Amino acid sequence: MLDAADAGISAGAVFVAREQTAGRGRRGRHWIAAPGDSLTFSLLWTFAADPAKLSGLSLVVGLAVVQALSAAALGTRRSQTRAGLKWPNDILVARADGSFAKAGGVLIESAMRPAAAGGKELAVVIGIGLNCAESTSVNAGVADQSVATLSELFERDLTPEILLPVLLDALFETLDTFGHAGFAGFRAVWNTQNLWQDQFVQVKEGATVLHEGICRGVDDAGALCIETVDGMTHIVSGDVSLRKV
């Protein structure tokens, strides 16, 4: 979609993939989606030409997804499951047995391009992948972690066709607000959806433990806050893996 952005495609354009055989996630992970089992799409949005103002963008996108899953149009929710967030860009399902599993994620890419009114603007491609239904192909693509589906949250099967329009409405509203006000206004709400909030966690890179302590959510810039024995640590790198212990 970045090629289309370079060619001048308008903000708000959406590309939907019915099937995904070589999807990309963080840290080089591969994502596979069979037709009808997952919602995988890219959304183009534009912002002022200041990359620093995009801090926290992937977090607000994840928040918009979780909030959209509460929409009445999607059907009756099951009472003992909930959707939630894991920093920086994972959508999780919290199950009745206390376990957590990944149901989707967000990937952000951006490039500078000429703005229609003159000057430059940031064209941002927001890639979202969500597991709607159980699929052996999805499970095979992420064998290193537990996988959930969003249908676990509802009394009926959740299809990509039902979910997409509800999700786009939430994303458009959230991105418009973020473009004007940044992440700080979303911080408190994001922390309420953080499934690791106030839990003892380890932050790892590979097999190496970088930090451990109590997860205190995120700050106004979207950095992860870990309260360690040495004080509060703010983590901004996206190349870490958060593990609840």
TrEMBL record:
InterPro entries associated with the record: aa-tRNA-synth_II/BPL/LPL, Biotin_CoA_COase_ligase, BPL_C, BPL_LPL_catalytic, Transcriptional_repressor_C
Keyword ATP-binding: yes
GO molecular function term, any single one: biotin--[biotin carboxyl-carrier protein] ligase activity
Coiled coil: none
Pfam families attached to this UniProt entry: BPL_C, BPL_LplA_LipB
Enzyme class: ligase
Reactions catalysed: biotin + L-lysyl-[protein] + ATP = N(6)-biotinyl-L-lysyl-[protein] + AMP + diphosphate + H(+)
EC number per UniProt: 6.3.4.15
Domain of life: Bacteria
Annotated Gene Ontology cellular component terms: cytoplasm
Full protein name: biotin--[biotin carboxyl-carrier protein] ligase
Source organism of this protein record: Fluviibacter phosphoraccumulans
